[in-house]
From TrEMBL:
<dbReference type="InterPro" id="IPR013766">
    <property type="entry name" value="Thioredoxin_domain"/>
</dbReference>
<dbReference type="Pfam" id="PF00085">
    <property type="entry name" value="Thioredoxin"/>
</dbReference>
<protein>
    <submittedName>
        <fullName>Putative thioredoxin</fullName>
    </submittedName>
</protein>
<dbReference type="InterPro" id="IPR017937">
    <property type="entry name" value="Thioredoxin_CS"/>
</dbReference>
<dbReference type="Pfam" id="PF14559">
    <property type="entry name" value="TPR_19"/>
</dbReference>
<dbReference type="GO" id="GO:0045454">
    <property type="term" value="P:cell redox homeostasis"/>
</dbReference>
<feature type="region of interest" description="Disordered">
    <location>
        <begin position="28"/>
        <end position="47"/>
    </location>
</feature>
<dbReference type="InterPro" id="IPR011990">
    <property type="entry name" value="TPR-like_helical_dom_sf"/>
</dbReference>
<dbReference type="InterPro" id="IPR036249">
    <property type="entry name" value="Thioredoxin-like_sf"/>
</dbReference>
<dbReference type="Pfam" id="PF14561">
    <property type="entry name" value="TPR_20"/>
</dbReference>
<feature type="domain" description="Thioredoxin">
    <location>
        <begin position="50"/>
        <end position="167"/>
    </location>
</feature>
<dbReference type="GO" id="GO:0006950">
    <property type="term" value="P:response to stress"/>
</dbReference>
Length: 333
């Protein structure tokens, strides 16, 4: 990942989100006016009491849903750059990048806000931003959005991108961020000590972050050769192998072939890989369960094994994995 040349040209169209948010805001304002008219002086007294109570502490890391995107991201981007982290619970690289972004949000102390969007809960935003895979990081400044980078990345490169974002926001838009004095960071406990990472596992993660998929696969296999129960290495290997399989695929062609030949196991395996890489977990699982049901012999075994591999990517505790495992058992037995 390299720092972008940030033209801030509004490469993502946020008009639909903004229009929906404005309509919602107008409705809320109308309800508020009606409540004030009914409440009379009592309402005014309540407002005064609220003002005396003081402003709420500033949150530097927020979870955002489609319903509050306009208010929490678009409106706030007029006073502070908002960095969006598209993530999912089943995504291993997300679990590497997310804590880093959260730590940097506190360290930068109001020069940007971090908005975390769970793609499984917010598919409309995921599609509107044109996200191809996760983790994916975007920025919104003065209502304009642009992609920053995709995938987990080394801390130094993430810092370079954030520094450039903060500089562009100030120089081109006059947006300098918000004050967090007395907010949630005041008196914040020191960060927990960092536990040194296994060098072999760190090398595997670095290869994956750099896009060296072949190197990452081999590095994770090396870790597992010495420590077969290493769950982090199992997850990393499954992710690297998935990315290796979808690399260079023509998505439109793959999906067309899968639709035209539902009994073609190889076509369904390729489409399932694309489904999962794009965040469509249940579609991927359902496709492979159905392929197991339709096929026999080697094709059936290939579909079953691929489904188990995708379970590793998502994580065995995920409820979608639990449900798909039950569906697979019903088809097999």
């Amino acid at each position: 990942m390299q720092p972008r040349n940030m033209s801030m040209s509004g490469v993502v169209d946020l008009a639909a989100v903004k229009a929906a948010g404005e309509a919602k805001q107008k409705a809320e304002e109308a309800r508020a006016r009606a409540a004030r008219q009914q409440g009379g002086a009592g309402g005014a007294g309540a407002e005064g009491a609220a003002g005396a109570a003081g402003a709420a502490p500033v949150s530097l890391v927020i979870d955002v849903e489609e319903a509050d995107f306009e208010q929490e991201v678009l409106q706030r981007s007029a006073e502070v750059p908002v960095v969006i982290d598209f993530w999912a619970e089943w995504c291993g690289p997300c679990k590497q990048l997310g804590p880093l972004l959260e730590r940097l949000a506190h360290e930068y102390a109001g020069r940007f806000l971090l908005a975390k969007i769970d793609v499984d809960r917010n598919q409309a935003l995921f599609q509107q931003f044109g996200v191809q895979g996760i983790p994916a990081v975007f920025a919104v400044v003065a209502g304009q959005a642009l992609p920053l980078f995709q995938g987990a990345a080394p801390e130094q490169q993430v810092r370079e991108v954030l520094d450039q974002l903060v500089q562009v926001a100030e120089q081109r838009f006059g947006i300098t961020g918000i004050s967090v004095e007395g907010g949630e960071d005041a008196g914040r406990a020191p960060a927990a000590p960092v536990v040194p990472e296994d060098p072999a596992l760190a090398a595997a993660h670095s290869a994956l972050d750099a896009g060296d998929l072949g190197g990452a696969v081999q590095a994770y296999r090396n870790v597992l050769a010495d420590d077969p129960a290493n769950t982090e290495a199992k997850l990393g290997l499954a992710q690297a192998e998935l990315l290796q399989r979808v690399q260079g695929l023509d998505a439109a062609r793959v999906r067309k072939e899968a639709a035209e030949a539902p009994a073609d196991a190889r076509a369904q395996l390729r489409a399932a890989d694309l489904d999962l890489a794009g965040g469509h977990v249940e579609d991927a699982f359902g496709r492979l369960v159905e392929t197991v049901r339709r096929t026999a012999g080697d094709d059936r075994e290939a579909a079953r094994v691929r489904l188990l591999e995708l379970f590793e990517v998502v994580g065995h505790e995920d409820p979608r994995v639990v449900a798909a495992r039950g569906a697979l058992a019903r088809v097999l037995f």
